[in-house]
Amino acid sequence: MSQQPTSNEASWFTEAHQASGSSIGFRTEQLLHAEKTPFQTIEIHQTTDWGKLMVIDGCVMLTTRDNFLYHEMMTHPALFTHARAKRVVIIGGGDCGTLREVLKHEEVESAVQVEIDERVTRLAEQYFPELCESNHDPRAELLFIDGIKYMAEAEPDSLDLVIVDSTDPVGPAEGLFNAAFYASCHKALRHGGLLVQQSESPLAHLELIKSMRSAMRTAGFSAVKTLPFPQPCYPTGWWSCTMARKGGDLSGFRERGASAKNFPTKYYNAEIHKAALAQPEFMREAFGE
Amino acid sequence: MSQQPTSNEASWFTEAHQASGSSIGFRTEQLLHAEKTPFQTIEIHQTTDWGKLMVIDGCVMLTTRDNFLYHEMMTHPALFTHARAKRVVIIGGGDCGTLREVLKHEEVESAVQVEIDERVTRLAEQYFPELCESNHDPRAELLFIDGIKYMAEAEPDSLDLVIVDSTDPVGPAEGLFNAAFYASCHKALRHGGLLVQQSESPLAHLELIKSMRSAMRTAGFSAVKTLPFPQPCYPTGWWSCTMARKGGDLSGFRERGASAKNFPTKYYNAEIHKAALAQPEFMREAFGE
Q1: Nearest 5°: phi and psi at B16?
Q2: Per-residue pLDDT band at A33 (split at 50, 70, 90)
Q3: Residue A21: which of B5, B27, B282 has the nearest Cβ?
Q4: Residue A26 is nearest to which of B22, B202, B203, comparing CB atoms?
Q5: Per the CB < 8 Å rule, is B27 touching A5?
Q6: Does residue A192 sit at the B interface (CB-CB below 8 Å)?
Q7: Strand, helix or coil for residue B109
Q8: Which terminus of chain B is less hemmed in, N or C, by CB atoms within 10 Å?
Q9: Which candidate from A14, A236, A271 shows the least CB-CB separation from B237?
Q10: What percent of chain B has pLDDT over 90?
């Protein structure tokens, strides 16, 4: 998946995304760490302009500079849509940035992060300490087990929000993109509860998004909404999350709550939340909305 | 600026953006054309997944697949903000995609495209014919002269909309990003008229955007607004245009007109227009909005 173009001045880490025939690269100064875990290969690079860069199996996971876009959009739209999310589960999310954003919400009483590969979190603690600053919040619990099994065994009607912050639908994450997994999530959620999942690029992965949305409906969710947002480090630089609700719809959100939020963000605000609900013409057409 | 990483299967055209330490590349099948004009070097590549790719001086200008994002956002927000734009001038825009979008508006009575390098347009006619389909519209006029001089000599109070669809602020386009040029535009516009200019990446070029906005105000524009949009082929995959108004404000637009538009688009619609007016938290802070 990865290529290392040469340059006179510096090295570059480049991820060639074969499916879309495009690539994104970062100029690097140093390979800080590389290891093969039982699940995947993880690399940490020092870049010249993007801070630290984490790469898993040749795919860019996050950089210090632009992860705020992804982490804020994976959390705040869902948490300001739910009336009062007390119990949150994050599937994946090993870099802990999603956990940190979730715990900015006072209404959250418990947040369980279920990451299959403990090494992702240990390396995040070392190289992205700012993302891990809420790992010791008394409301946080970090489990290093299989998220698919965890959701299959979760107590019915026990959760308010499930966030699926995973890698692409290949390798260990493949089972997170099908109706069986969504059915586990649906069962574990209370009425009015929300599922939100990273759903790849609106431009390059439209068919995958359509099949995710369809599988979510098959699993019993009554409303589905895809929110696009910019994400420079992922293929096409344009990403999305897809939200699904158990009972009720997804037409509104707690706009006053979002406008009066008592914590800082770098991308998200109430206006941006509304903006992310707007569907480009080609998505409208593809989704029949 | 450009690098050609090697691969077993195919070639890649990669633009390494030195200022942001990031790169974007496309898998190519064939170099279709390369020439040095009096102004710049132009290449046309056939890509595997993005159609044709035009490169000027090593920088990606457009691809068949994603140019709709840029061309629609450079035109429709401005045209649905102006009450009735009759006379439009496009500075640059040699690929003719902006001209095509402008001429979708029935209220436009004349659209003059002022491109310094005729070869850009001739190559667009050959390799991007779909973008040039309105070049022979009786309302269109194509001039191949210096846009800075054209605007300096334009009749005062004669235009409704000036669109600056240029390359980056280096080389021939450098003079399009300063207060002297904006003063020419301001003088040539009627009261209520609009200037809209491509304004680079919100993440990588925030200081440039701030200085453009400030120069527009110095030139006499009474309101300025920056609209972000996704653009996979440009650095960071996230781009923007900045709109300025001579007299009046930029708080609203003709939302009913946009909702009832009688022409097709792939990205733009009334909801997307509203969404583009939302400012991410870090932009709000940078602009003091």
Answers
A1: -90, 115
A2: very high
A3: B27
A4: B22
A5: no
A6: no
A7: coil
A8: C
A9: A236
A10: 91
- Average the pLDDT over B240-253 and give the result: 96
Query: Which residues belong to CATH 3.40.50.150 in chain A?
Result: 67-287
Q: Which regions of chain B carry the CATH code 2.30.140.10?
A: 2-63
Q: Is B58 exposed, middle or buried (0-12, 13-18, 19+ CB in 10 A)?
A: middle
Q: What ipTM describes this predicted complex?
A: 0.94
- CATH 3.40.50.150 for the B67-287 domain, yes or no: yes
Give the pLDDT confidence score for residue A247 in this predicted structure: 95
Interchain CB distance below 8 Å, A16 and B27? yes
> Is A212 near chain B, with CB under 8 Å?
no
- A-proximal residues of B, 38-67, CB under 8 Å: 47-50, 65-66
Answer whether residue B1 shows pLDDT above 90. Answer: no
From A50, A238, A274, residue closest to B278, measured CB to CB: A274
Q: Residues 123-182, chain B: which have Cβ within 8 Å of A?
A: none
Active site residues of A: 165
Q: What is the pLDDT of residues A185-220, one digit of tens each?
A: 999 999 999 999 999 999 999 999 999 999 999 999
Q: Mark yes or no for CB contact A25/B25 under 8 Å.
A: yes
Q: Mean pLDDT in chain A?
A: 95
Q: What is the CATH code for A2-63? A: 2.30.140.10
* Residue B171: DSSP 8-state: G
Which of chain B's residues have a Cβ under 8 Å away from the Cβ of A266? 280-282
Q: Which of B95, B117, B160, B165 is catalytic?
A: B165
pLDDT of residue A117: 97
CA distance B180 to chain A (A): 32
